[in-house]
Design brief:
This protein has 6 helices and 7 strands. Strands 1, 2, 3, 4, 5, 6 and 7 form a 7-stranded mixed β-sheet that branches. The longest helix has 17 residues. It is elongated and about 50 Å long.
């Protein structure tokens, strides 16, 4: 029996990673409210959003369909940094990260019918010192506009990074090891796992 797999995301990075792992899947975008709840911790936040994204898509498919949701957040001083709303916000966020270590958390959730399983993976990222001119130039590349924490490590912002401690793929947006482990629990295997 062929298992149908849907990625609840239109993220090119998540699509590329899932393809790289050898999965066959389709993509559907999950539109949810990404506001942080009162007193919600970063790990709880990404876990909730990744599961919500998968559940939203699952409502429109048979119970046999496997839905994979994911969400990533950037955290500094217990503040969850979202996507920057404008240049001023981008400067504020990247100035907070400048010459410091911050955390990135990515949650992956798999939903099949009423079954839900979630894993959260964290990593520490240390930035070099950034000045306002550099941040402004980066904003004008367009790269930070749709990225949590106002940067994409796999792109131009890679040269801001002095050190990583943890999963690089989790920082990009889909922790490879944990994703394949979760999908295997639901019977979705790559050619390597069969």
């Amino acid at each position: 029996m062929t298992i149908s797999l849907i990625l609840a995301s239109q993220s090119p990075r998540r699509r590329d990673y899932l393809t790289q792992l050898g999965y066959h899947f389709t993509c559907e975008s999950a539109d949810i409210d990404e506001s942080v709840l009162n007193n919600e911790k970063p790990k709880e936040y990404v876990a909730r959003l990744s599961a919500e994204k998968a559940r939203i898509i699952a409502k429109h498919h048979p119970d046999t369909t496997i839905i994979l949701g994911a969400d990533t957040c950037v955290v500094i001083d217990d503040e969850i940094l979202g996507k920057p709303i404008d240049l001023t916000d981008c400067i504020r966020q990247l100035s907070l990260l400048s010459d410091r270590t911050h955390q990135v958390f990515t949650a992956v959730s798999v939903v099949k019918g009423h079954q839900v399983s979630t894993k959260v993976v964290g990593a520490d990222v240390t930035f070099k010192a950034l000045n306002e001119h550099e941040i402004t130039q980066y904003w004008h590349t367009g790269e930070p506009c749709d990225k949590a924490g106002a940067y994409g490590i796999q792109g131009i912002a890679g040269h801001f990074v002095k050190q990583i401690n943890g999963s690089y793929s989790a920082i990009v947006g889909l922790p490879l090891c944990e994703t394949s482990e979760l999908l295997a629990e639901f019977g979705v295997l790559t050619a390597l796992q069969q």
